[in-house]
Specification:
Gfo/Idh/MocA_oxidrdct_glycsds, 36% helix, Gfo/Idh/MocA family protein, 12 helices, 25% strand, GFO_IDH_MocA-like_dom, oxidoreductase, Gfo/Idh/MocA-like_OxRdtase_N
């Protein structure tokens, strides 16, 4: 039995909570034992709202079956846990994860990996030094629509990629998210999803060129457009904007054009458009990446197998790529060599 302690009970904490409950109900050998948050007494009576709804975001969750703590050390002293699942502000990821890994716990940590690549490298080094599993929640690696894209690219189903665009946007978040020192702004907190997809699906580019703008005082870059420059000449761009207020809601989309067709993902549907045939809708699992990534992580632990998907080494590269984009944005879009950032 893999025993889990959940640290942080905001929107992503609720999302992880629901998926642990589901996994246990499905017979996976995992048990969520305890939940820790400095505001746990308040949060257990609150509804949660986020970009993508949880299954129970319209109701207060019954937490009577779980041990609740407002202090991490108290939880660790009183519980026998195998895994700590961290859904905390980004600046806390590295110091807490490194400490937990050193104390013998496996760690699942929400994205982004850390506030900068130096801190991310410390997490990776700690996992290796103490021989514990570390996984970062880059959930699009397990999201059916993005897995489908990766498969089409890898198999060259429609030939080589000509161009690709990715977009992610919604309303400005509140609290620590708009504190650059805590979240890294939209570029690190939200845009990193598409950055991770680009480097996972297409590999690392040679250069990046980013235009970005700060809108909310103190929050870092809130609106970003990045071009990724590859030696084969394919045109790749990703944009993020978390200043879309009013009734806009939330969107994540991609459009990828190939020599012999194109894929368009929007409104949770992937439309496949061959150049010489009728278009169709891809048949995809209805399960979301949040569930599938946690299932994968837990099953690796149960089977005592090393992870081969979404390794911390690969998610660290996404963090490094974002830092290259930040440097380019600071220089008004100047091209930045990705190889220099990786050194």
């Amino acid at each position: 039995m893999v025993k889990v302690g959940l640290v942080g009970f905001g929107i992503m904490g609720h999302m992880h909570f629901e998926n642990y409950v589901r996994l246990a109900a499905e017979g996976v050998d995992v048990q969520l034992v305890a939940i820790c948050d400095i505001r746990i007494e308040q949060l257990k009576h609150e509804k949660v709202i986020g970009n993508i709804a949880t299954d129970t975001d319209t109701a207060v969750i019954d937490l009577s079956a779980y041990h609740l703590y407002d202090d991490l050390e108290k939880m660790l002293a009183n519980e026998q846990l195998d895994v700590l699942d961290l859904t905390l502000p980004t600046d806390l990821h590295a110091p807490i994860a490194c400490d937990l890994l050193a104390r013998g716990y496996h760690v699942f940590c929400e994205k982004p990996m850390a506030i900068n690549t130096s801190a991310g490298q410390q997490m990776l080094d700690a996992a290796h030094a103490h021989q514990k599993q570390l996984m970062i929640g880059q959930c699009l690696r397990f999201w059916p629509a993005y897995e489908y894209l990766q498969e089409v690219v890898t198999r060259q189903t429609f030939g080589e990629v000509i161009s690709a665009t990715f977009f992610r946007g919604g309303a400005t978040p509140e609290g620590w998210f708009v504190d650059k020192e805590r979240s890294g702004g939209a570029m690190l907190d939200m845009h990193i999803h598409d950055v991770d997809m680009i480097q996972w699906v297409f590999g690392l580019p040679d250069h990046v060129s980013s235009l970005a703008r700060n809108v909310v005082p103190g929050s870092g870059y809130d609106v970003v457009s990045t071009n990724y420059i590859y030696p084969d000449g394919k045109v790749v761009n990703a944009q993020v904007d978390w200043t879309l207020q009013g009734d806009y809601g939330f969107s994540m989309t991609y459009r990828v054009n190939f020599e012999q067709g194109n894929l368009v993902f929007e409104n949770d549907i992937v439309q496949v458009n061959p150049n010489n045939g009728a278009g169709y809708t891809a048949e995809l699992s209805s399960d979301r990446g949040y569930y599938r990534q946690l299932r994968y992580f837990i099953e690796c632990l149960i089977q005592n197998q090393p992870m081969s998907q979404a390794t911390p080494e690969s998610t660290l590269r996404s963090l490094q790529l974002v830092e290259a984009e930040m440097l380019s944005a600071d220089r008004a879009g100047e091209k930045v060599s990705v190889a220099q950032i990786l050194v």
